[in-house]
Amino acid sequence: MSAAYRLNRLFDPHSKRCIDVAVDHGFFGEPSFLAGIEDMPAVVQTLVRAGPDAIQLTAAQAPLLQSHPGREKPALVLRADVANVYGPEPPSAPFSLVVDDAIGHAVRLDAACVCVNIFDIPGMDGLRRQCLANVSALRTACDRAGMPLMVEPLVMKPGRGGYEVDGDADRIVALVRQATELGADLVKADPTDDLSAYRRVVLAARVPVLVRGGGRVSDDELLSRTRAVLEQGAAGIVYGRNVIQHPDPTGMVRALRAVVHGEPA
Amino acid sequence: MSAAYRLNRLFDPHSKRCIDVAVDHGFFGEPSFLAGIEDMPAVVQTLVRAGPDAIQLTAAQAPLLQSHPGREKPALVLRADVANVYGPEPPSAPFSLVVDDAIGHAVRLDAACVCVNIFDIPGMDGLRRQCLANVSALRTACDRAGMPLMVEPLVMKPGRGGYEVDGDADRIVALVRQATELGADLVKADPTDDLSAYRRVVLAARVPVLVRGGGRVSDDELLSRTRAVLEQGAAGIVYGRNVIQHPDPTGMVRALRAVVHGEPA
Amino acid sequence: MSAAYRLNRLFDPHSKRCIDVAVDHGFFGEPSFLAGIEDMPAVVQTLVRAGPDAIQLTAAQAPLLQSHPGREKPALVLRADVANVYGPEPPSAPFSLVVDDAIGHAVRLDAACVCVNIFDIPGMDGLRRQCLANVSALRTACDRAGMPLMVEPLVMKPGRGGYEVDGDADRIVALVRQATELGADLVKADPTDDLSAYRRVVLAARVPVLVRGGGRVSDDELLSRTRAVLEQGAAGIVYGRNVIQHPDPTGMVRALRAVVHGEPA
Amino acid sequence: MSAAYRLNRLFDPHSKRCIDVAVDHGFFGEPSFLAGIEDMPAVVQTLVRAGPDAIQLTAAQAPLLQSHPGREKPALVLRADVANVYGPEPPSAPFSLVVDDAIGHAVRLDAACVCVNIFDIPGMDGLRRQCLANVSALRTACDRAGMPLMVEPLVMKPGRGGYEVDGDADRIVALVRQATELGADLVKADPTDDLSAYRRVVLAARVPVLVRGGGRVSDDELLSRTRAVLEQGAAGIVYGRNVIQHPDPTGMVRALRAVVHGEPA
Amino acid sequence: MSAAYRLNRLFDPHSKRCIDVAVDHGFFGEPSFLAGIEDMPAVVQTLVRAGPDAIQLTAAQAPLLQSHPGREKPALVLRADVANVYGPEPPSAPFSLVVDDAIGHAVRLDAACVCVNIFDIPGMDGLRRQCLANVSALRTACDRAGMPLMVEPLVMKPGRGGYEVDGDADRIVALVRQATELGADLVKADPTDDLSAYRRVVLAARVPVLVRGGGRVSDDELLSRTRAVLEQGAAGIVYGRNVIQHPDPTGMVRALRAVVHGEPA
């Protein structure tokens, strides 16, 4: 499958794993999401120097990355959709909207991958339907372009706002499985509360699984959690706030490279 | 009609009947549906060896079957739609969504048939309309590709969640008839509570009828029910959990081949 | 207008009138509608021998008629839409859905006409809008194919389920007029309670009007009502249950040919 | 295949054979072709009364037939292409041109079949290519409309103008076979010089073969030749000048019905 | 690449090789090509029983194969183009014409592969260009359908008519290489005069190479030549006249199965 050619740009050739730093939080229109990423040119400049395998951006911020010379810089993962479910209150009419001609943008921006959500939020059946339709439509568009599709299944607790993900392994496994049945080339999934259950996520996915980072935690917790899910079979990480809100993003990326790729720290 | 050419791959050339094993349960995102099919490569491998006439999968799992060499392996029946009606609670906004370019996927995956639902659930008029539109659109897409269309009419009890089908013969016959009037090439229908009424289902369908298996029952019950509906004119079976959750799927397929095809057990 | 060429196949060349027998009731998914038409191959066979001018069927049943040799057999009138308003309870979300590529089906099936509804049911404005959009879209599709469009305006009583039509002449005339304003080539309309008012229906239509039969009545009542509307200017009849549920459908068609075409009984 | 439905209008239901009278000679722009068909309304009127199974016309003359009431009149076979090879001198740039939207015309005119040529004229390779492309393109257009495709393979002698067909069985068989490989539903082929070789034409065609009439001959010769090819397996005739230039076209059609359909003369 | 799924139907699962019997000679309109294949239903019936891995046919003859029940019968290889270079005299205007919507036909007919020519005939540059354009257009159409593309490069001697292929290894290797550079999934190539040079053909192709049979030769010569090219790395054979003009086609297929698949003779 031709998606493989761009995936080769996403994964480290030696460890076969991927460190993706997500800096697409500004897309969601939430004031609280902007901490640490107010100055995007500076953020991207810092990250390019830190050298993760990929940086996740929206189409309009992507030139900040893609204008850098050379082919060894981080690959672009393009965020394809914008949702309204992260506010402090649950939305009255939840949506997850894929930008127009998302794969056209990805091709023109020379992205190595696109990323899209499936939300499992109790009581929001219409949102689920939107997400399934989004993934399904992106699947065929990606096929025509040889563009890898990363699906980010998000299991949330009922009746709350914000980023309150649910670490219930059964729910995560079932949603990841749905993402796979829809044709994800990559899955970006939350850690399970019981990290030893992450192997079930990996089994359900059948494609490489990158672990989401979630909210800020201590360096020790982050690194030990990272080690744990890699042991369960995860193929890498997609961390955002734990890198970009870190006082030393470069040092944190270096620490993650040591854990994920086995490089000397 | 050119659908006949692919139907030739679905039916046994001697008995003119079909044993289809459905392994598409993971598509629906229900944690409880994954029992026995957590490891899809292993499941499909086991089934290919067991040798039913067909295996029912979603597009993204289909390569597990289609990568097997030879043309004698089970044919692919492609699940075209995903619904949200199987949860423990009835959905607030029920849907049945056909994947984008379903027939394009079926063609590229060398499927021998696609399968789509019509739900008759009291109070869910909008869902019914979605299903009728789904079948009608697939009918013309199938015609353009010579792809057989299997319609799965599901009569459910009002106000409940889960897989609570209704065995009422009048309701089943009327829904099967609607499937036929919409152009089904094959019908996959639940057994009627009174098995002797299955002849009415067969008469209403006018096209081959494959019987659904439903939840786990004893081997004796399954095989005697199978015999009964075949006597009433059914053209075969589509069983899922009674095969894949069985301790000996290979043995169960062999037992079913004896009943359906008249092969030595 | 080229619709005239196919209309030539619909009307008797001598009487210039049409007897159409509708056998499309199975499309609506209502158990109670199947009485007398459970075995469609037998029903169509009987009707072809009885020799009305036309038989009304859905696309998937139409081959039962069109496979008969010769060009003197009854012409095909193709039912284009399926509604959910005939159940014992009014639907919560009423719909009338035209099948995908209806005129493409009509062309491929060599139909002489297609038939579509406009429902006037108090309180169901959304349904009315669907119907008007259906007729309007079919009008242009029919124009491109030279396919006559029969519109069936149905005036129903408020708040009831089932086939409870309203014989109020004012309502019928207004709805027939709307059908004509949308471009009907033919109108299929209910009898008015006061049969002498049927002339107003004919005047409103300006195109040939075929009278609906409605529920089962005695032979005498049916034939005398037929005579009455013909005297008021109707161009023929579309009868269903009064023919197909009749103990002697062939005799009934012969009796109707005597009344409508003036043939010796 | 749905072409069967329109073929049912072309063939006599009892004899399963077809008498088609071709009156499309005016299309070719040859002064000598107009004898007997100068007054098309009168010609078509006469033929409708004479009652062959079909009349072959161009799109613009077809309304003369299709305006007649009733469905028992002769079916319309629509000539789809115009060539320049019939003049007294061979053309410097031979062509065979299919009219724009030929199948659209056929559908709108309620035709039962379209007819197109393949010319095998030594030295005219470009013409052959045009014809093969014509048939191939009409094949898919016909499939989309359920329209039967009659192919008329014409084997001509080298270096001559006019209608100088070659009765060489080997050449006719090979060209008829090519027509069949391209998907003809019907073949209209010249008689072979040796009429007993016509069975080879029928075998090569695999679809019904209608025999061309060619230039005027005596009634005896025409009828005995007709009998001979029917005995060899032909499914009917397409005669033009021998009917329309005959002093008594009605009588000639009656005589042909006796031979072809076995009706009392 | 999804072409792999249909290739799985073309190759024997054990030997990983393919025996394809070509019966598409009637397409070219040459009287001399019909020997042994005059009666196509009988020919295909015989071949289905003989059991090669595939039978090569045109779209209109393909139903003779595809109407057979079961999925173990030979797979369909669809001939996509018709040329005029096989006559006794070289054509003045050579052509190779791909039928309209070739891949649409292939999909509807459930073909496992399509086959198209590239002619290298000295002096016929325009023909070469047509062929390269044909292959290139089919390549993208095949990609959209997951349909394997077999390219048949034919190296011919200058200035002659008929099937006079040139066994010059340098010319064959160069033309096979061009086929591969255009994206052939399979190559069907003539044997080289020096059979030991066939390894160069296999190396140039990089995809499986099936050897053409050419004109009738003795059984011994055919079988020993077959062994020789298999030893050089060929993946199978496409034989036509040496099977269908053989007095015992079934015995010949059995003998070829012994050589190609290593089955007991």
Please give a quick description of this structure.
With 265 residues, chain A is of the alpha/beta class.
Descriptive keywords:
265 residues, alpha/beta, 18% strand, homopentamer, globular, eight-stranded parallel barrel, 10 strands, two-stranded antiparallel ribbon, 10 helices, 38% helix
State the largest interface: A-B, 28 and 30 residues
C-alpha end-to-end distance of chain A? 35 Å
Sketch the topology of chain A as an H/E string, one letter per element.
Answer: HEHEHEEEHEHEHEHEHEHH
- Radius of gyration of CA atoms of chain A, rounded to a whole number: 17 Å
| Count of separate DSSP helical elements of chain A | 10
Q: Helix/strand-derived class of chain A?
A: alpha/beta
Q: How confident is the prediction overall: mean pLDDT of chain A?
A: 95
Helix fraction of chain A by DSSP (H/I, runs of at least 4): 25-40%
Strand segment count of chain A: 10
**Residue fraction in strands of chain A:** 15-25%
Note poorly predicted spans of chain A: none
What sort of overall outline of chain A do the alpha carbons produce when their principal axes are compared?
Answer: globular
For the biggest sheet of chain A, the summary is: 8 strands, parallel, barrel
Oligomer: homopentamer
The strand order across the widest sheet of chain A is: 1-2-3-6-7-8-9-10
